[in-house]
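seq/struct pair 1
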Amino acid sequence: MDDLADIPPQKFPRHIAVIMDGNGRWAVQRGLERVRGHQQGARTVREVVTECARLRKDHGGPDFLTLYSFSMENWKRPADEVTFLMQMYIEYLQKERTTMMENNIRFRQIGRLDNLPDPVMEEVSKTLELTRGNDGLTLVLALNYGSRTEIVDAVRAIARKVKDGQLRPEDIGEGTISSHLYTAGMPDPDLLIRTAGEMRISNYLLWQISYAELFVSDVLWPDFGVHELHEAIRSFSTRNRRFGALDDTNTLRKRPAPATGG
């Protein structure tokens, strides 16, 4: 049975962004090494990605799923954990290319790629090329990503165009900035999910989530599954998205004047 069958297609988020938190805690709670939490978290990624692909096929959305895979700040973690994460990322792309093709998933990568290990970039390139013709769900992995860095890179690119006479400062608007972000060409997220109960944005898509609906789950990412994903989407479907405007639900209606006797 489809738990979301009663939700109209227009009530599904077009773009879901996820901060996958709690892998390390999941492992520590079980007396395991932190890396075991990351391994279990990768299994959760497969489940969530596959379900989003099905939802797009059956319900028309989401079109994009963006996962915060590795932040700029994650380089501060112990070297052995970083090395493990890079190797796990390589193995994930190798194993999941078949899943992507079977589910008509198109792959996309965002983040600073210039200082990633060559083996990682090789697998990224292979996956981008293989899935280029797919037109189902777009899976976006944010690797070596930080939103402030993204905005800095966009400002630098715009400044170079101004310096070269390709762009006038007075012509710079929100669209100019959006088109120079890593996410250029993608719709902004409608729904931002964070797991493990943390109430932080963590330098993630700061420009893009200006009007996103937030859903915080207490469930640690390795335990986050289809049920929790459906819960987040159902919550989103009930939100009254006003984008700063007013609607009939929060305006005072004038009561008719009482009738006066003649």
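seq/struct pair 2
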Amino acid sequence: MLKQNHLPHFEQAVLPHLDAAYNLARWLMHNERDAQDVAQEAYLRAFRFFPGFRGGDARAWLMKIVRNTCYTCLHVNRPLQDATEFDDNILPADSSAPNPEEGVFQNEDGTLVRRALEKLPANFREVLILRELEGMSYREIADITGMPAAGTVMSSLSRARGRLRQILTDLMSVRHRAKFTANCTCERMST
């Protein structure tokens, strides 16, 4: 059991990262209630194992616990249906493709971006969340995910961004076709 004299150190080192921990859990779990449960379980684990924490980056240490707790929960409670491995032959990188993210990020509620992120395989979603939303370094992401080197993180991020770009392009074209169809229907009804 944790001694009382560790409590102030735990609160100082770990509690400031509660929002980041919950954010990662929410994106990995796809469910508010599960994310809350996982974040709470991760904090309990962090509290229990804090005496073994030897200093360093408490945020990265906590995020690794959150990630592992999420995957343990997903593995035990439901299959990882969206954890697909990336294959360059299926979706090659296309550097000349238009950049639909710029227009999408101007969308007030970001619904399209959220939908696109949810469609990503878990391994791509987590590196994007850690880098783009949480602002973590390549080294921190490598430590959290267990990837062997920062170069692997950069490669995964590149692939994740490419996949996200493709999903956004597809979602935007579906949205555009729906608006076009709705406009055509309205014009025919008004004539």
